[in-house]
Amino acid sequence: MGVNMRDIATAAGVSMGTVSNVLNHPERVSPKLVERVQSHILRLGYVRNDAARQLRAGRSDTVGLVVLDLRNPFFTEVARGAELRGEEHGLNLMVTNSNDRTYRELTHIDRFEEQRVRGVLITPTPGGMERLHRLRDNGTPVVLVDRESRDLSFPSVSVDDVAGGYLATKHLLDSGRRHIAFVGGPLSIRQVADRLEGAQKAAAEVTGATVEFLGTPGLTVGAGRDVGRTLCERDAATRPDGVFSANDLLAVGLLQAFVMIGKLAIPDDIALVGYDDIDFAASTVIPLTSVRQPAEIIGATAVDLLVEIADNPTGTHDRVVFQPELVIRDTA
Q: What are the angstrom distances between the C-alpha of 267 and each of 117, 196, 288, 330?
């Protein structure tokens, strides 16, 4: 059996209430008594059970975060921003990964609810929204991260991805490209669909411009390499002269294929724009032009919003939308 508060009280010759005050409200106890009780805590090796304390108080110090894919550096930066801001609020962050699978997302949500977390930050899959409504209705605040709900019923922190897709494609068009390929997928991921919509809007403004959709099963380097190989096999008459990639991981894979095969000069034969501006976008073999999202700020803002909701659950809460920024380098 571990050491408990009763053992400390007996050893120090004080009441259980005094031990509790030393642990939770030391200002209510004389400094001499605090020192005495703490010396016995150290001697006996007592470790407080914060989980039990939080359950009794009905208020947890833990926030749950569910991201789509922790392999994507964008979500790693979002988590970093949330963690750092959580520390400022005295909160711990528990990070989980759905891998864009609804069943994994639901498992994480169930576990968070069982642990009575302070709230949940989540980039949801399309199939998980009903469960999020139930979670919120049961009293757990929910903030969507990098996504808005279609009915706008949840507070959220996101980026205008339609505007980002427009920025990327307009840059390609302004450089004289006319046959643009959009590489990304699946379209069930809201961000991918929005970025494609922005690309199509930009092309619609330029006579003779087209956007060809090249779908991928995921947003990974490997998927980008596969598309890159197929593009290298196409003749100049049918090959796009500009590529807008739905994220930087795909763009890195495309770039790898172009460079390894060596048939296409970048950006002369084919220009390339990515999305997210992850840390190593600037250090790829040809520095990558990309659309920047403020990933750490997104995570930090989501925590601020969650704390606001937890403190004022009946108030009206925001949907924060950041504007993306085009970072021009050497691929376009």
A: 49, 21, 10, 7
